[in-house]
Amino acid sequence: MTKETMKAVGLYSYLPIENPESLIDVEVEKPSAAGRDLLVKVKAISVNPVDYKVRSPKNRVESAPRILGWDVAGVVEQAGPDCTLFRPGDEVFYAGSITRPGGNSEYHLVDERIVGTKPSTLDFAQAAALPLTAITAWESLYDRLSISRDKAANTGKTILIIGAAGGVGSIATQLAKYSGLTVIGTASRPESTEWVKGLGADHVINHFEAFLPQLQPLGFDQVDYVLCLNSTEKHWTNMAEAIAPQGKICSIVETDELLNLTLLKNKSVTFVWELMFTRSMYQTPDMIEQHKLLNDIARLVDEGVIRTTTSETLSPIHAANLRLAHAKLESGRTVGKVVLEGF
Predict the structure, then answer these.
(1) CATH no. for residue 289?
(2) In terms of domains, do 246 and 285 share one?
(3) CA dist 312 → 308, 324, 329 (Å)
(4) 259, burial (CB in 10 Å: exposed 0-12, middle 13-18, buried 19+)
């Protein structure tokens, strides 16, 4: 019996994005759902920094094509026998797991506990821009920084979001504002500054300059929370200076340099990491929280509280367009999210 195949974009070698072999069109076996897995027919995908970080040049060659991609919107084709949350025909969106094949393929397997119901007011391309960044922003604010979802509890409190114009920053800015915080974003160009203001930030400062001298004229001698979405080590001293005593700092950006934690000691500051793949990577008992929060995000989108952050859509989904999307992200100058739709 001939096995059914599907289109995908993958890699065998880890190469610079300018190399046409860095991402190639491939045909692979179409999977089937078992356990709590859903088989999703992929309608649209988005790219994130994790894609080019995983793809970055290294001395390793894969024996089978490695498929990247951790933002998907699509339709459930098949539900495993243990599934209770979804059934065939349901429209879904999710980010998936870093330890499994990514979603840059016609069909994709994903555990239903990290999948949400697609916002009904968005098309697939608009929805595909949201999952990874929304999960990261949500977990950063509410799980890691322990910010209350009760607006009244946040009256008078401030958050500084470093890199507010990027994918995660675009969602975090909206969620923080919705939660009643005074939001100060960072950006460095006129277009990114306008983008951040358009998302609801109360103030915007430049992350290439010292923070406190920019915050003080705005009336802030300190901030209660810092969410770092860009170059943890570069901003470390500025964050330590700006954070309030007993404040909290969360970063999503790994560092190759040692961080001087002693800078936080006198203020009794909490520092915490966020990685949205932690729950799926370690199969934590609370994995289903990502299903719940994606449904909350969908509700907020449908209520008009959160807007999608799609800035550019490419079609169709193939290697050439994915290489173009990776190159755009690697430039470090993208605002919002680059989405691809349709095989």
Answers:
(1) 3.90.180.10
(2) no
(3) 12, 12, 12
(4) middle
